[in-house]
Design brief:
alpha/beta; 29 helices; 64% helix; globular
Length: 728
């Protein structure tokens, strides 16, 4: 080691000396050649009297205004502000896209440009906007490719009849209302030299769009993915998306061509292009996906090939005149429906697209949105009319159609609210219209506010519908409850789900028909793609399903995504008819907060009984110790009674003196199995009682007491089941 340091020092000193020698000799060459003068400015030659601070200041100012430095600062600012507003919106139950849209408006001309114009001009100088726009368009192209991949073509092929009717009604009705509305606002708000046909068609298509990605994420959050209602909504949105984007392609073709007749050639080429993508390229990609279906085989060359397919499709669509975004969407739609292959491919581009590039689009939209222009009463009245027309066309149109095809009022209204969600897809269409010169700045700003309002109202409206119908639904659940007991298992790590099922099987009855067991897993995020969500759901339930199969148990599974896992678990437990919620704690037994913040929130907000399991290499509970301290803890004896019905156990009951009568009464019960049970008064308790014990059971109050007192024997506890009774 010492020899290496000495050698390294000699090498550094030698080369440093060589550099100094040649630099000094090079400066002598300047003196020998009078034509060469080293200058720092156009007028001053280099001398020691130059103000070095001023030189650095000028250099710093020049560097800070360099286009690359400006772009980097813009990206940093956009990502930070977008993340902040997304988190804030998540806290109040709104989709993160709402936060990103609001972030764009706040950092744009409407807020930052109004109150801090100098800083706004420094951060977003006019000459930097074209570069920001093109970069945001790249993000949109990647995003639309992912959206195309999320569409399940098999679902569209096997679409339910009611979904087709609802979807088409939710396009036709708002489209017609948009065209009618455009008749009344065309002369006042349409840009000069824009034909009524172009303006009205864009207003119609803007009213008709549904935000498929936002809608899909809300369905995930609410655990509706596997339900019939969720399937109908997803199918409606998928059909809506495909139809709307095809209509948009036609509208863009008409706008660019100038009239419907000239657009026929564009439409003809578009049909040929779509046919080639579906019936030539898709079968070829299917063969590629079968060969490269793993991370090991999906190398950079294959990824590069799919990027070429994506960009080529976008380029051809742009050349034809139906916009590059439609080409990107179609390229994603023709990707083979292999979940594993899509997951790997999505993972290559999703983070860059969603986290880095897509927020640029929101801010660029915000820079174009000037809410300050809408100060006149007539403008506000027009904006209100646009919002009301959009809601009536989409929400009421979809809800009434759903009711006509035979769905309940609850499901019909829910579908209407979902289809009224516009979000990011609306902004994309509005920006296309703005770029084509079809939409004026005023109309563009009004439509952005409409997109915000219709997306923002989704979660509150769904909550209101659930609240209104839940009291009848809860009564129905109780009446239709199949078995004597219902247990909800909530877990994070997949292996914990398996352990919780093994534990639950030991304190429930031998015959699984008497117990309904539901396994719940939540992913702590609201920004998952459909592909990621399906993959995570499949992987999360593999261990618990295998365990259930080995034990001969039937379980129901529920999967959700949520920013607030604790709140969502409690809501799920409260909305059902569960007798007990069993949750695994991921916290170390000896951390400062042993239950953990999330688990503590679950315990506090859940109405049914809750059992928190802290695992310390648990396998099977052959020997149990039960701690009883107060009269309310006596109900834990019934939990132990359930354990005794399944396997031969050694039970040690540690109790307070005044509970002797209750414990003795329990032990003399003639229906109690003949098991080895030891009664130990608390005063006689010593750590030897914990030897060879597999599981300790105690109330949450008792746990909190030994936690606060920091008793020495707590370190010797085995796996622990901490129980909060229903009435505690």
């Amino acid at each position: 080691m010492k020899k290496s340091i000495v050698f390294y020092s000699i090498v550094v000193v030698f080369f440093f000396g060589v550099l100094l020698f040649f630099i000094r000799e090079g400066q002598l060459l300047e003196n020998d050649n009078p034509t060469k003068k080293v200058t720092l400015t156009n007028t001053d030659t280099y001398n020691t009297s130059v103000d070095l601070v001023q030189i650095f200041s000028e250099s710093f100012h020049q560097n800070s205004h360099h286009p690359l430095a400006t772009l980097i600062l813009q990206i940093i600012s956009i990502i930070v502000v977008a993340r902040i507003f997304s988190l804030l919106m998540g806290k109040i139950g709104q989709p993160t896209v709402i936060g990103e849209i609001i972030a764009g408006i706040v950092i744009g001309k409407s807020v930052l440009g109004t109150f801090f114009p100098e800083f706004s001009n420094f951060l977003f100088p006019a000459e930097s906007l074209p570069a920001l726009q093109f970069l945001s368009q790249i993000g949109l192209i990647l995003f639309m490719f992912i959206i195309g991949m999320e569409l399940d073509v098999n679902v569209l092929r096997q679409k339910m009849q009611e979904a087709v009717v609802i979807s088409h009604a939710s396009i036709v009705i708002p489209f017609a209302l948009g065209v009618i509305l455009s008749y009344f606002i065309y002369t006042t708000y349409a840009p000069p030299h824009v034909a009524f046909l172009s303006f009205s068609l864009f207003m119609g298509i803007a009213m008709s769009i549904t935000a498929f990605p936002v809608l899909a994420r809300i369905i995930q959050e609410r655990g509706l993915t596997k339900t019939r209602l969720g399937s109908i909504v997803i199918t409606c949105a998928a059909i809506d998306d495909v139809t709307a984007w095809c209509l948009l392609a036609v509208v863009v073709a008409i706008v660019k061509a100038g009239n419907a007749t000239s657009a026929l050639f564009t439409i003809l080429f578009s049909i040929v292009y779509v046919v080639i993508m579906l019936y030539v390229l898709r079968p070829f990609l299917l063969r590629v996906s079968k060969v490269y279906a793993s991370k090991e085989t999906l190398n950079k060359n294959v990824v590069a090939f799919f990027f070429i397919v994506l960009l080529s499709s976008a380029y051809i669509a742009e050349l034809i005149g139906i916009h590059a975004l439609f080409g990107a969407f179609l390229a994603g739609a023709v990707i083979p429906n292999d979940l594993r292959f899509k997951e790997i491919l999505t993972g290559k581009i999703e983070d860059v697209s969603l986290v880095l590039l897509l927020p640029l689009f929101f801010v660029f939209t915000g820079l174009r949105t000037q809410i300050g222009l809408l100060q006149d009463f007539s403008l506000l009245l027009t904006c209100g009319a646009i919002i009301i027309t959009a809601i009536i066309g989409k929400l009421a149109g979809a809800a009434l159609t759903a009711k006509l095809v035979g769905l309940s009022w609850r499901d019909s209204l829910t579908i209407g609210v979902f289809m009224n969600t516009r979000g990011l897809m609306e902004l994309i269409i509005l920006n296309i219209g703005y770029d084509l010169g079809v939409l004026s700045t005023e109309i563009f700003s009004m439509m952005v506010l409409m997109a915000l309002a219709t997306t923002f109202m989704t979660s509150p409206c769904l909550d209101f519908i659930n609240y209104f119908f839940d009291k009848y639904h809860h009564i129905s659940l109780i009446q239709n409850k199949k078995n004597d007991h219902a247990i909800l298992i909530s877990f994070g790590l997949p292996q914990m789900g398996s352990k919780l099922l093994e534990l639950v099987s030991q304190f429930t009855y031998k015959v699984s028909k008497k117990v309904d067991i539901t396994a719940l897993h939540l992913t702590p995020s609201t920004q998952l793609s459909q592909i990621d969500a399906l993959t995570f759901e499949e992987e999360a339930f593999i261990p618990i399903r295998e365990t259930a199969l080995l034990m001969g148990l039937k379980i129901e599974t529920k999967y959700k995504v949520s920013e607030d896992v604790g709140k969502e678990v409690a809501l799920t437990a409260n909305r059902g008819t569960y007798d007990m919620l069993v949750v695994g704690s991921a916290k170390s037994l000896f951390s400062k907060d042993k239950l953990g913040g999330t688990v503590r929130n679950i315990v506090s907000n859940t109405k049914c009984a809750v059992a928190v399991f802290i695992d310390k290499d648990f396998h099977i509970a052959n020997q149990i110790v039960l701690f009883l301290e107060t009269q309310s803890d006596i109900e834990l004896l019934q939990l132990v009674r359930s354990f005794l019905d399944n396997v031969t156990y050694l039970i040690r009951i540690v109790y307070e003196g005044e509970l002797y009568a209750e414990v003795a009464k329990f032990l003399t019960n003639p229906t109690l199995p003949n098991k080895s049970i030891a009664m130990i008064q608390k005063e006689n308790f010593h750590t030897s009682v914990l030897e060879d014990i597999d599981l300790a059971i105690m109330s949450i109050n008792y746990w909190q007491k030994i936690d606060e007192e920091e008793v020495d024997w707590a370190e010797k506890l085995p796996s622990v089941l901490i129980v909060k009774g229903k009435d505690l």
